Every structure is written in structure tokens, then in C-alpha cells.
Amino acid sequence: MNTLPRLLLAHAAAHPAETALQEKRHGIWQPLSWAQYATRVRDFACGLGTLGVRRGDVVSVLGDNRPEWLISELGAQCLGALVVGIYPSSIGDEIEHVLSLARVRTVIAEDQEQVDKLLALRTRLPELEHIVYYDPRGLEHCRETGLCSFRDVERAGRAHAARHPGWLDQQIQRGQPGDAAIACTTSGTTARPKLALLSHANLLHMGQRLHEVDPLHARCRYVSFLPLAWIGEQMLAVACGLLHGFCLSFP
User: Fold this and answer.
1) What is the pLDDT of residue 235?
2) Contact 107/118 with Cβ under 8 angstroms?
3) In what order do the strands lie in the sheet with 247-250?
4) What is the domain-level CATH number for residue 59?
5) What predicted TM-score, i.e. pTM, was given to this entire model?
């Protein structure tokens, strides 16, 4: 059994030019090849390392389904950290509960709307140190402490990798299938949501069992629209996508 980052690197080595992800912008599909995908994950992982993310930490992602969501998730997992997703429709107390429960120090947020939610909670989240945004519109001139862009983290990661060759590969190889990969929030029907930890092995096992009843292959095209904070989309888009190497589309 493998880990999710190692599966990504295997696809990048086996068919680097094939499209792994595509996002529609202004009506035009913008493709990202497996090689480009792996490179961005490596850059972002090293960048997270410069922010102090270490093995066993929990990184949160708050936003809609976009390539940066998966780059963030796999980048954190490269370091042995795990990811908890927050539904983009979540508001104040809901966000505070998850971030406090998971003791999150770094959040990857999609845009100004999500960043504003986090900034409004800062006094109630003393452990929150870094907010990384991937859509810069409206945030170009914001100078809040600990706020930085996704591209800045990638640039810092490239510089870190140049100074420490081989460091990230060592982190990836330390990963084990039994390591926690994600934390999913429970439904919260009987109490406030709890966190359920799921390992790489768990996700990949579910993906393989699904394949046995509904066969998947590399030529499949999957439209990712269910929230990535939900276990179902993690199994389908992430685990099955990396097991079988099909293209994920973000409309």
C-alpha cells in the first residue's frame, strides 16, 4: 500500500505530459500536467516547511474545489502533516470550532471572502499563525501579519529546495500508509462536529473497493463538484484519482 504523495510522483514519472487537473477560467480549460502538478506540490510542500509545518501538524483548507485545494493537501501530506477541510459556506463559530479542535496553525484560504472570515476570528484563535490565500483579488494591498499568497509560498519553497536538495524526498519517504492523511468533520447531528482521522491506507482501500464495483481507468474524466471537505469527494477525486490516474476537472 502506498501514500498519496508517492502515487502522485509515480504518475508524474510515468506520464508527465498527460493532463492531471484542469480548471475552467473565462470559459477555457486551463490544463495542468502530471509533471506540473507534482512540481507545484513539491514547491508548496517546501514552502509549508518554511512556515514551520512539521510531521503530525494539521493544516486546514477553506474554499471551493480548485487545483490549489489538492496542491495544498498533497503538499502538507508530503511533510507528514494532515489536512482538515472546512466547507466554504461555513461561518464564524463553525470555523472557529474546527480550527480550535484541530489546533491549526496554518490555513489555506481561497479568496478575500474566506480570508475575511479568518481575520475576524483571529483574537479567538491564538494558535493561528499563517493564512495563505490563492485568489489574490482584493488582497493585493492587505498587510495583515501572517498573511501571504499561495505563489509566495511556492517561491519560498523553490528557494528552500535549492538550499536543501533531497530534504523533501526524505520527508516523503518517511511517510507510511498508516499515517493520518485527512481529518473529516462528523455531521454534528447529536453534538458539535468531531474530527475523524483517516489514513492513506484507508482512503486508498476505499478507492480500490469502489473500483471493484464501478471500474475506473486513466481515460476517465471526473468533474469535481462535491465539497473536498467531504469524505465522499476525498475518496472519489483524491484517492481514486491518484490510484487510477484520471483527469480531475474543476468547472
Assistant:
1) 95
2) yes
3) 28-33, 19-25, 247-250, 221-223
4) 3.40.50.980
5) 0.96
